[in-house]
Amino acid sequence: MANMGTVFRLDTSGNEVVLYNFMGTGDGATPQAGLTLDVQGNLYGTTLGGGSSGLGTVFMLPAASAGVSVLLQGNGNGMVTSNPAGITCGSSCSAAFLTGTTVQLKASAATDSSFGGWSGACSGLGPCYVRVSAVQGVTALFNIIAPDFSLTASALSPSAVSPGGSSTAKINVTGTDGFATPIALSCSVQPSLTLGPTCSINPSSFIPGNAATLTVGTTGPTVGLLLSTPGFRMLYAMSLPILGLLVAGTRFDSTRKLKTRILPAVLVCLLAGGVAFEVACGGGGTSSVSGGSGGSPAGTYIITVTGSSGALQHSTTTTIKIQ
Known about the structure:
Blueprint: E1 6-10, E2 16-21, E3 29-37, E4 43-49, E5 57-61, E6 67-73, E7 78-83, E8 88-89, E9 94-96, E10 102-109, E11 113-120, E12 128-131, E13 135-144, E14 148-153, E15 160-161, E16 166-176, E17 183-190, E18 198-202, E19 205-206, E20 211-217, H1 223-226, H2 230-252, H3 257-281, E21 299-309, E22 312-322
Parallel strand pairs: 6-13, 15-22
Antiparallel strand pairs: 1-2, 3-4, 4-5, 6-9, 7-8, 7-10, 10-12, 11-13, 14-16, 16-20, 17-19, 17-21, 18-20, 21-22
Helix pairs in contact: 2-3
């Protein structure tokens, strides 16, 4: 019988879904006012006409055998709520909804926890949408957030040094979620060479929220090493005959004593000049990361800083260039 009224709903796409058509007889006709939904999903309302007296009815549309049930898992704390209303975990983790209803579930973690995701009828970390066609089961995972720390290093200043120079950087440690345990700091250099850079941290242990200083030192050229280079050995060999003539001159010509005293002084200056030349030019040694005799070899080195506290360990890196 037409024009007796209907109960309907709109789905998420805006389409009308008819839940009941009134026939105008015992079930009533011309429904009035709004509908009331109880926690079981039953709908209640009134009609203006129909019924056994023709003066209207109070009716109930029973809920379909469908609903959503939520299970909370994990060692953390959180809450799951639904739209339409009905689910508020942990007080009530299941509710009945009309068949075809799309229920949105939202997870909210407590301050000491994190939401680990959905399983069952939903997956992922975002809102869960369940279209009710039967009893749908959804699991929400909440995990306790463990205290931790983060470790950062500023750029070394200066970033490039000559052999014998040094550089420093700031090491910052920040605790999260109440972390306040002392952290032990250590450092290492790669590549690791005999004359390569060395590093140290001061202080080597402190509580998060403070800062430490990383110092990178290098080895400068040494004269002892440079005197053994091929260039200096050649200069020394050339000086021996001259030294012999000077000695002979002092024996046969006493009138040239002044000159023979001056010439050895000149020879000493030449030798000193040769040493200075060797120092300035690197002594004929190599200047690559593979090794050399002019102090710390040139190249780029990676400084790794590691912070440890119990089972927790984090690292950060910075670089220095020797030129």
